[in-house]
Design brief:
eight-stranded parallel β-barrel; TIM Barrel; globular; alpha/beta; homodimer; 12 helices; two-stranded antiparallel ribbon; disordered N terminus
Amino acid sequence: MGGTSDEAGGRESRGGWGSGGDLTRLSINQETLKQWSLPELAAGCVALGVDQVGLWRAPVQEYGVERAAELMRDNGLTVTSLCRGGFFTASDPKERAAALDDNRAAIDEAAALGTGTLVLVSGGLPAGGRDIAAARERVADAIAVLAPYAADHRVRLAIEPLHPMYASDRCVISTLGQALDIAERFPAAQVGVVVDTYHLWWDDRAPGQIVRAGAGGRIACFQVADWVTPLPEGVLLGRGQLGDGCVDLRGFREQVDAAGYRGAVEVEIFSPALWAREGADVAAEIADRYLRHVC
Amino acid sequence: MGGTSDEAGGRESRGGWGSGGDLTRLSINQETLKQWSLPELAAGCVALGVDQVGLWRAPVQEYGVERAAELMRDNGLTVTSLCRGGFFTASDPKERAAALDDNRAAIDEAAALGTGTLVLVSGGLPAGGRDIAAARERVADAIAVLAPYAADHRVRLAIEPLHPMYASDRCVISTLGQALDIAERFPAAQVGVVVDTYHLWWDDRAPGQIVRAGAGGRIACFQVADWVTPLPEGVLLGRGQLGDGCVDLRGFREQVDAAGYRGAVEVEIFSPALWAREGADVAAEIADRYLRHVC
């Protein structure tokens, strides 16, 4: 969790955000501002009055994990999540062992960054594979191996259901219900779920599953992005700025709140259109859109 | 339904399909062979030993509805479905009235073609809309208006759940469960559902919903296409030839059969790669793939 309202007020008084809006819960995921280096991200968030960020492994590794942790600490930034572990679905034993090793490294990195949440993108079908049920079981098997290791490092594994359009090549876990079916095999302190509006907005069962997730203390992370069309080739980089699409973002936020979630609202938008712009402009727009469409 | 096995044998003996495979249940959806005119489609199916086709409104209208019906009859072809009615989700009253009129025309055309199945693509969210639950209710409202008219014309409305990646701009009905939730408000003879492998393969609840659909006599149409990635821009025209992707097509066919479905297996693949090839080659490949991956 980020700062209290008083702290947020303090940030605002140092000139970051003039509108008086409450950015206490806002976390900016680094991938949303890919044009920024880690120091630029830290400085930009401080300037804006945002004290939470979501980080990704590759840029953190490039900068140096310990150095990144120090940079965040020095700027008073809390790391709300690390993306990402996962890719558990290989059927080849060597590949599976390598994936487990890589996930242990991800847990180590999350612990070093001081975040309690490692987001898991579970993986798609192996080449030539057609058995999605078996692939989902391999996800559960891998989590069974990793959860105790994560718990030892005070990191919670957060299973992220991805939109069904990614089911074959990125993530066989497509609904919040499926994510919870696996998460609930483990203690809530060890395995939670990610609620991401981009992936779940279409699902009429999501509201009920949010209640279920909240009742079990399973909501580890809440991410927001809007849904816009047409989808680009490959469908990875077509997320919309908050308010530009058809997702009832405020409705989602109210649902996770009603389910007992008190954590950050992490803005994670993969969009070449945003990446092409001046980072500070995008960050200010995100804060504005967050206040208007999510708060 | 198409011909009996004896009739299929007769077709084969006239030289259509040399492998001895049973094409009795195969129906070729016209959109799969978009490079063919209606007469070419009819001749090509006869040559292949296929006696069922799925048709689309626009090319049928262009050719003339009565003339198309005659062409099909003259070639001994059964029309297994007409695509498509639907697009029921406008909130503007004038647009809604126009959609209902257009759907009545679609029902008339289906009746003229002698098919008992009008496939419904329900429509996406209206511009600026964010209330997907309300849009789904408008789908049900429209079907309530149209079902008696369809029944008078011996046409069954077949609600097709489309993959969730189309939820915002084409179809707010994304799962077989949602389709059945609406269909079951009406008599089974009036409103059924479409089971399309391309749209449903990712859903762990689909098998149970197929059982539910079969038990209620709701499976009006069974369509097959494979799932391949990367998806193209706009995600409309990225379907895979049978066997090229990750869908357990035979498993789906066995499930609908076990649920009591005895109708056609309609191959509906939107693929510029297939459209660019010689129609007869594509048709022969479809028959071969059907026998190897679906039968």
